[in-house]
Specification:
- The complex is a heterodimer of chains A (about 425) and B (about 90).
- Chain A is of the alpha/beta class and about 425 residues long.
- In chain A, about 30% of the residues lie in helices and about 25% in strands.
- Chain A has 11 helices and 18 strands.
- In chain A, the strands form 3 sheets. In chain A, strands 1, 2, 8, 9, 10, 11, 17 and 18 form an 8-stranded mixed beta sheet that branches. An 8-stranded mixed beta sheet of chain A has the order 5-6-4-13-14-15-12-16.
- Chain A is globular.
- By secondary structure, chain B is of the alpha+beta class.
- Chain B has one domain: 2-Layer Sandwich (Folate-binding fold), CATH 3.30.2270.
- In chain B, about 15% of the residues lie in helices and about 35% in strands.
- The model of chain B has no long low-confidence stretch (mean pLDDT about 95).
- Classes of the chains: A alpha/beta (about 425), B alpha+beta (about 90).
- Chains A and B meet through strand 12 and strand 15 of A and strand 3 and helix 1 of B.
Chain lengths: ~425, ~90
């Protein structure tokens, strides 16, 4: 069923009796060409691009809970492609281009809103670094714009321009960045993949990965064995737990990241704003809530909830750049589990086990990557070779010294 | 989280810096270790869901390093030792 304005009017006039479930709820078949573990944004996007771009139709997505119940439902919904390094920027720009055409591709309203993102600059050295970053973005086909203090004051008059410790000196803007309705991304990809024959199997936990003679044959699940020609794992947050079933140790630690939303307010923020001297970012949802976050808590965690010191740190960051946030009451806060990799960049690669593929290590930047991650993982699963924008995301980069370390922190996962 | 310091009693975890898994204390022998050993030591982690032995540096206190046993699924702390005492055993 295609969604359209005419369909909405027709259904409104006929009592909304014609709507159907957006995807089926099938029992698993005994064998698929490709099985994807993880019904989050990345797994569902992978299934969609496998079916729509790479002509694969015997595909299943296996999810232990309900689709979209993990990190794709727990993030701060920001999309952008403002990276510096060559291993990253073409990939994230590819992702932003896919976001721009997403709703037409999926026939689903994902509320893609290119309201812009602006990173504040607080020192001369930071201005140099951000202009360099902006140039790297432009060289890779993205958009970047340096804003001087007068422009910042005009566009964002509510910011704290009197801070002696962290004066606002300017900003780096990416106008094509913005926000997307995160749940709709999962649902839109699920519906599109399902319409092309992909089986989405919920409430089905993977309990083991069957490996015979060095080749992956399928997965043991709570609904029985499911055979597969190829198995792709896309369970960021729980990657280490899943890959341990295949006997692998990963260059990943799981950490908790908290996020916050205020009560609904009238429109006050024109786009996404980030603090350059601490770690704080904020946008306003279409419902009016201020959605904001900051650093990860910094210790290994699978708990999906954090502790108060980081809450204090995030709120201090908010008060430092935007004192008016102190008048808003906090409505909700929550935590999600991040795959923190050893260089702050993801992995989309084969494993040493034939037929077993891995997608993870997204740190806390996975949401914006969803379309390109799915596309690149689908490419890898269908063709057994990396997509051209994801060639740097290899397992062996830590062995060979080709790390993609945007922040230059080394193998300290809690600092990326 | 409150960490029960063996010398100083209950302290706020915000006084500490987290340094990762306690397994990092077992550094490969530079005389005999291969490049592969160093890769595994520097970059690979067990990352368990459940009890985890980990290093917390008391930067805002007595600057000792503690080995804290903490459940990563609940944040409950079940054991705290001085790393130097464990290392000298």
């Amino acid at each position: 069923m295609r969604y359209s304005g005419f369909k909405v009017i027709k259904e409104a006039l006929t009592g909304h009796k014609g709507w159907k479930p957006a995807w089926r709820d099938p029992d698993p078949q005994p064998h698929y060409d490709i099985v994807i573990i993880g019904g989050g944004g990345h797994g569902l996007a992978t299934a969609h691009y496998l079916a729509s771009v790479y002509g694969q139709h015997k595909v299943a997505v296996i999810e232990k809970g309900w689709i979209g119940g993990g990190n794709v439902g727990r993030n701060t919904t920001i999309i952008r492609s403002n990276y510096l390094l060559d291993g990253n920027e073409p990939f994230y720009e590819f992702s932003l281009k896919l976001w721009e055409g997403l709703e037409q591709d999926l026939n689903y309203n994902a509320m893609v809103s290119q309201r812009g993102i602006m990173n504040l600059i607080h020192s001369d050295a930071q201005r140099d670094a951000f202009i360099r970053r902006g140039n790297a973005m432009i060289l890779n086909g993205a958009d970047a714009e340096y804003l001087d203090l007068a422009q910042i004051k005009k566009e964002y008059p509510f910011l704290n321009f009197d801070d002696a410790r962290f004066p606002i000196k300017g900003g780096l803007a990416q106008r094509r960045g913005g926000t997307v309705r995160h749940d709709a991304v999962a649902w839109g990809y699920a519906r599109a993949a399902d319409s092309r024959g992909v089986d989405i199997i919920q409430n089905c936990q993977v309990t083991g990965i069957r490996i015979e003679d060095g080749k992956c044959r399928g997965v043991e699940t709570s609904k029985g064995f499911i055979g597969a020609g190829r198995v792709g794992c896309a369970v960021a947050g729980n990657s280490s737990r899943l890959m341990a079933k295949a006997g692998m140790r990963l260059p990943i630690e799981s950490h908790v990241l908290q996020a916050f939303v205020s009560e609904g307010l009238k429109p006050v923020l024109p786009g996404v704003i980030t603090f350059g001297a601490g770690h704080f970012y904020v946008s306003q949802s279409d419902k009016g809530g201020l959605v904001f976050g900051g650093d990860i808590d910094g210790y290994n965690s699978y708990a999906q909830r954090g502790n108060l010191p980081v809450v204090e740190d995030v709120c201090e960051g908010g008060m430092a750049i935007m004192p008016m946030i102190g008048r808003a009451r906090l409505l909700r806060m929550w935590g999600g589990i991040m795959d923190m990799s050893m260089d702050g960049s993801p992995i989309i690669d084969r494993t040493h086990i034939d037929g077993l593929y891995f997608n993870g290590g997204w740190c806390y930047g996975g949401f914006k990557a969803t379309p390109a991650s799915g596309y690149a993982f689908a490419h890898l699963l269908a063709r057994d070779e990396p997509h051209e924008t994801a060639t740097a995301y290899r397992f062996d980069r830590f062995r060979t010294g080709h790390m993609i370390d945007e922040k230059g922190m080394g193998n300290q996962p809690n600092l990326h | 989280m409150i960490i029960n310091h063996p010398l100083l009693g209950p302290r706020d975890s915000a006084e500490f810096v987290y340094l990762g898994a306690a397994a990092l204390m077992d550094r490969p022998d530079p005389e005999t270790a291969s490049a592969e050993d160093w890769h595994d030591y520097a970059y690979l982690r067990d990352n368990p869901a459940g009890p985890h032995r980990e290093l917390w540096f008391h930067e805002g206190g007595d600057r000792s390093i503690l080995i804290v046993t903490r459940d990563t699924t609940t944040h409950e702390i079940t054991g705290v030792e001085l790393a130097r005492e464990v290392a000298s055993k």
